[in-house]
Amino acid sequence: MSGTEFLRRGTLALVALFTLPISLVAQSATVTGRVRSETGSALAGVTVSIAGLGVGSVSGTDGLYSFTVPATRVNGQAVALQARRVGLAPQNVSILLAAGTITHDFVMSATALQLDQVIVVGAGISQVRERVGSVINTVDSTAVQRATQPQNLLSALSATAANVRVNTQSGEPGASAFVIIRGATSVTGTNQPLIVVDNQPIDNTTVSTNGGDGSTVTQNRAADINPNDVESIQVLKGAAASAIYGARAANGVILITTKHGANGPTRYSITSTQSFDDVLKTAPLQQQYGQGSNGHAGACATADCNATSLSWGPLLAEGTPVFAHGDEIYHTGLTSDNHVNVSGGSPRTSFFLSGGLTDQLGVMRGGNNRYDRSTVRLSASHQLLNTLTFGGNFSFIDAAGAYVQKGSNISGLLLGALRTPPEFNNQPYLDPISGLQRSYRFPHPTSASLTSPRGYDNPFFVLASNGNRSELGRFVGNLTANWVPTSWLSLNETFGADDYNDSRVEALPFTSSGDPVGDVTRYQITNLEIDHNLTATLSHAFTSNVDARLVLGQNLNSRRNRQVYVFGEGLIAPEPLALQNTVSFTPNETRSLRHISAYFGQAELDLHDQLHVTAGVRDDGFSTFGASDRTALYPKVDASWTFTNLFHPDGQPRFGWLSRGRLRAAYGETGREPPVYATITALSTNGLFGSGFGDIIGAKQNGQGGVISGLNLGNADLKPERDREAEFGTDLGFFGQRSDLGLTYYSKRSVDVILPVPVNAAATGASTALANGATITNKGVEAEFNLRPYTSSRVDVSLGANYARNIGRVESLLQGVQFISYNTEGFVGSGGSSTVGFAPGVIRGLDFVRCGLGERVTLPGVGTLANVDSACGAGAAKGALYISGTNNRPVVNPDERVIADPNPRWTSGLTGQVRVGPLQFSTLFDIRHGGQVWDGTRSALDRFGTAAETRVRSEQGIFGQNVLAGDKVAGPGARKVAFSSLADWQDWYTTDGGSAGDAQAQFVEDGSFVKWRELSILYTLDQRWVQSRFGLSSATVRVAGRNLHTWTKYKGLDPETNVGGAEFLTQGFDFFQNPQTRSFVVAVTLNR
Amino acid sequence: MRPIRVAGLLGAAALAAACNSDGFLTGGELSHDPNRPTEATSAQLLVGIQANLWATLQSDPARITGMWAQQLLGANNQYVAIYNYGVSEQITNGFHAGLYTGGGLVDLRRLEAQTSAAHDSVFHGIALVTEALLMGTAADLFGDLTYSHALTGEQNPPLDPQLAVYDSVQSILSRAIVELGGTGPTNAGPASSDFAYGGDPAAWTRLAHTLKARFLMHTAEVRPAVYADVSSEAAKGIVDASQNFNAVFSGNASEQNFWYQFDVVQRAGYLAPNPQFVELLRTRADPRLGTYFNADQSDLNAALVSAGGTQPLVTANDNLLRWAEANQRTGKDAAARTRLNQARALAGLPPESDTLAGENLLAEILIEAYIADFMSIEAWNLYKRTCTPNLASVVAGVKIPARFPYDASERNTNINIPPLSQQPARNANDPPNSTSDATGAACLGQ
Question: A911 vs A89, A142, A468, A1060, B262, CA distance in Å?
């Protein structure tokens, strides 16, 4: 058939469709009916089709479906009518296809065994869970909307699936979420999973403007997706599940399916959600002692004077007004979410149109703490021919945010707020006479102090700055075509584009401590990803007991990234905070382009409806691979055996409690591409020369540009990192539909892990090169359990639990290299690292000398390299602090080691749902056991004397009792008085006992928590009067509380947050970032 | 309708795309980093090379040797430790590797290849002189160095003995002098990208001879026969301040004098004038007391350390005094006196009496050179070689450091570099002096 003829037929079909609908119907068969759940409610989005004929339709919100079979194909034959929806058990019935109307209603089980659910397994392929030999978790849309931070789709995955660990940076609007699936496998990357929306990969990078430990929060880009558009989320955890995504899948894949329209009358749905947010806890501060040092007052009263930073002053006189510096910066935030959906369709055409407005006003005062997102989305499809359907998904996102400087940053909010002495009033934050910023360290600014630092910025000055903003425009869209030329062949094409422009400004006004002369950073990121994915699916039933399916596919992908960063330093006028108003500029431009050309194939065999075997391979070609081998193969194989079918092939349970059972095993390989351009050795235009003391000149001199060789050597042999993972498990159903249990063990070995290798400068002219060298393993178990103890038409009770454990270990780095710091956060005394023998992303630092570890350390009063254990004395507890006899204090051990592992020992999520008629209650608990946090905030506040625990300063100090009270002690100074005056306490906390001290291990705490994430009550009104009085099909009202309570021993604000964002491998740093928030939520939905 | 044929066609199209996939993965921005250049003009390379050279000659190495030669004092933080001979791999970390990395030998070799290919022998000669200055100074600081095997890519490249490095430097300078004499039409030279001499071959030839004299002199302790060659080379070298080889700073951001950046902006208070040196200048009534230091001798003279201040790297005084020393040591006292007085005149001092001769003349030449080489590594080189002035160690029982440790990064990647504890205290060219050349008294600090 020629192309012209192909087109002509298409046009004819269109004409026929629009001009002759009656005649078409008159000669053909119409299949129609209603799809309901077991409880009788209408089910939308169910695909009802006759597979062999390639015809079908999707049910609408009223559950109605209808489609027409052309007369030429109607001859009274028996055909299989199939109903499928992701998340539900598929159904097959046989109908006789004759002219006229055929009605068949389906009742689909929404609480079926998870095994029967249809799931998306990647590259546009869907499959019944039972036939997949690896674990794929499904999160449905209602769970997403009920989540703690529903505005960020990835935060919403928190506690929903085993070994899918989510760390949201903070409760601020626009904060990023860090997702790690089955442990980190790379030391250079951030280990974030690939995000695929409707078969199209989208960008999910997190890039902070000026360094993630300071600066402001930033989004992970998948947070742009409107969660209300999401139908379901599947998490591909293991390498076997995600091998079809090859060298992009080493961190797992999150597959997102969005909502689509359905045949039937046009439906409208409006949802309005108001959420009132506040902070759960504020930092514990002392209110008794004032600014000063050694008990002497330290405020200053003269113009432009500098006062001490410390609150080690005198006991405040009775009646001295004090201020709650941890509370006064917060108020109640308000998040307003409004969404409209319109959907509908005819038998051949369907559409889903949605609009959403999310306005988040955060909990920090001042109005410069917000993130607003508007989205519109159209999903439509049209069946052009009986065998050919075209469709498309188009969404546009417009987001804008304003942020507050945070974290490790002397212009950050909490850093200045929590260090302020209790009696200093931070209001007004502008001096009434000069109109310039006043702070506790610089309380009397005159007009001469416009470019003088303030020590630390006044928190209200920080809150008032509108200099930190971002604007984003993003288009994500695709075109799809599905062609079923014969009953055994179908072709699917998805061609998509993800294009965004993220435009940011981050500015410090005059008098900012971080840069008193003021500065403006402009940062513009544009990113375009185009993806073509073509699959051909061939199915064949060899005998009634042997089915086979072969999927062949091609994937072409292009990612183009452009970044322009300009730092303008030195404001000219106070306003505007714009580049042209600065004295000097430092520009930096980064561009990259990456292509992928991949082919994949997957064969599935189904024997006796019992044994399902899938084998597949992806041949990945990446432009980022070294020229010596530009392709890599990623094989997979998995098998699933439903052993219970062996005993009762009719599907009826024969013996008691075990109604269903299967065993599964899978092996797969995935990879991670090298950083872009890491294979290239090139020159540099921004060389710098000088010493570590800041005397630096550039390669550009006297107005002439200089070019030098780069310090990093390209490695033309760089290969992708490779994960090899085997997993085994079982899924068991008990007592019919009442209960199910899934158990999984996996073992993953990551080889060829890329790390920076020092090279000999004399031999190569460079300092470092990236090389494939390290090996990392992750092993773990996962369990998921669901129980539905009682189900009736009026009452439903369901309970769920998941448990996960992952043990990660860096097996080797390079020969002789014990640890590296790369893509990690770090502070003096507590730096992120990957260390041999530990999971990636542990924190290194120093500790005090401890007993029972067989160490030899120089001990004052004892000698050099003294035997610590004998100095501790007999009977000293292992790990007890050695207390020196010279000053009755502990001694810093100069040997650096791992002081904190932020990775939890195990995690768990507990859910409960009870439905009584129109009322539905649900709740969620999130449990994290283990996972250490370095409480750098407390470390600093101890030093400055504002921490609540420094109140002990009037007492005598004894280690193990009221100093480092959690520790056992031993040695000659044990249980002796170390401090007897306020000056002694100050001396301790401003040296070894605080942030100036080397031994930061004393601030490492257990970050275990139980968080009551959610309690919600939903009331559904669908009585007749709702329809007659208001013209609505139904309405729901939901009242919910989120993050209601946290049970933790952690002393700081929140063990869950991290000062840096999702861009870092290491987590577990608490340094003046904001906590998570608690919310009270009211939501109303009207459906028509 | 034949759907299978259409499917076949689509399949064929996909396969066709497959065959062409290499084209999809290479070329343009896929294979070439758009953020970094892969080629540079010779002028652009020279600009970066000069910046690196200035850092090597003027940043930490000059400040630390200035402290060890007791012209300066470490008054604060890490500089107290370094002044008190706290020699660790950290103190030079970067300057050893920096000899070879961007702006160093790797780019000198690139520049030499480019200028050679362009038949620009003048530019080629300038590159060779620069290489000689960089690597000769490196030999002064570190001793044995990877040089003949440098940039070969081989694992664990061997180190050349220090004297072999000096010999290589001499041969490179000889080649440079020949190249600089080239007169072909392609000898465009670096023109304005040469910040010291504007591409003047005569000036570079003078510098080459000066450096020949300097690095020959550094071997004189073990090769006393070189004095005659030092004289003959110095005679063809820099003899007037207008011929000095200088670092030139615009004073703009990232283009500022190292001494200014360290002493005024970044680390004020770390360095102070050394009382020993102040006293020397005061007793000699040397007017440089006022040019080197501020009025109360508490800091460097602000006029000397300004953002855009020109920094002399190789000077006429330095060359004249070396010439004078070589003359004196070969028995030509009259000629030596002439050179000494020439140097004194440049420093604003009256001529010495004609009666000054013999050991007294030598002592005067050496002290004059020590004063003239302030802010240059040469003051420390002079002290190591001659024990002049006869400095006492500032830490009882510890000798004044006579070499720099290798970078830890270089040691970790080359088994031929021993751990710091096994590295020599002094270099082969520089055995400890038993007496001070100037006073004849026992050498205190070596």
Answer: 22, 13, 39, 30, 62
Which range in A721-730, A894-903, A1073-1082 is most confidently predicted, on average pLDDT?
A721-730
For A96, other C-beta atoms within 10 Å of its C-beta total 10
Task: Verify whether the Cβ–Cβ distance B21 to A703 is below 8 Å.
Answer: no
Distance of residue A128 Cα from the nearest chain B Cα, in angstroms: 27
Query: pLDDT means per 10 residues in chain B (446 residues)?
Result: 57 55 84 93 97 96 97 91 86 87 97 97 98 98 97 95 98 98 92 96 98 98 96 97 96 93 90 96 95 95 92 97 97 96 95 93 97 97 96 93 92 91 92 92 94
Give the list of residues 6+ apart from residue A481 with CB closer than 8 angstroms, or none. Answer: A388, A389, A390, A391, A491, A492, A493
> pLDDT grade, residue A138 (50/70/90)?
confident
Q: Return the bridge partners of A483, or none.
A: A388, A491
CB A387 within 8 A of CB A354: no
Q: Which residues in chain B touch residue A387, judged by CB atoms under 8 angstroms apart? A: 3
Q: B59 and A695: CB-CB below 8 Å?
A: yes
Report if pTM > 0.80: yes
**Which residues of chain A neighbour B8 with C-beta distances below 8 Å?**
none
Average pLDDT for chain A: 88
Cα A967 from chain centre: 35
Q: Would an 8 Å CB–CB cutoff place A716 in contact with chain B?
A: no
ipTM of model over 0.90 = yes
CB A157 within 8 A of CB A166: yes
A973-981: long-range contacts at Cβ-Cβ below 8 A with a sequence spacing of 24 or more? A973/A883, A973/A884, A973/A885, A973/A886, A973/A887, A973/A888, A973/A889, A974/A883, A975/A883, A976/A883, A976/A888, A977/A888, A978/A883, A978/A887, A978/A888, A978/A889, A980/A956
| Tens digit of each residue's pLDDT (9 = 90 or more) over A845-883 | 999 999 999 888 888 888 888 899 999 998 899 999 999
**What is the rounded distance in angstroms from the CA atom of residue B296 to the CA atom of residue B77?**
23
- On whether the CB atoms of residues B170 and B212 are closer than 8 A, the answer is yes
Question: What letters, b where the CB count within 10 A reaches 16 and e where it falls short, cover A566-600?
Answer: bbbbbbeeeeebebebbeeeeeeeebbbbbbbbbb
Which one of A492, A554, A588, A683 would you mutate to disrupt binding with B, by most B Cβ within 10 Å of its Cβ? A683
| Residue B146 contacts residue B162 (beta carbons within 8 Å) | no
DSSP string for residues in A444-461: S--GGGTT---SS--HHH
Q: How many CA atoms lie less than 13 Å away from A700 in the CB half-sphere?
A: 10
Asked if A699 and B270 come within 8 Å (Cβ–Cβ), the reply is no
Give the pLDDT confidence of B69-126 residue by residue, as tens digits.
999 999 988 899 899 998 888 777 789 999 999 999 999 999 999 999 999 999 999 9
Angstroms from A1041 CA to nearest CA on chain B: 49
Each residue of B273-299: pLDDT tens digit? 999 999 999 999 999 999 999 999 999
First-to-last CA distance in chain B? 100
Output the six-digit token pair for A401: 């945010």
Q: Are B6 and A6 inside 8 Å of each other by CB?
A: yes
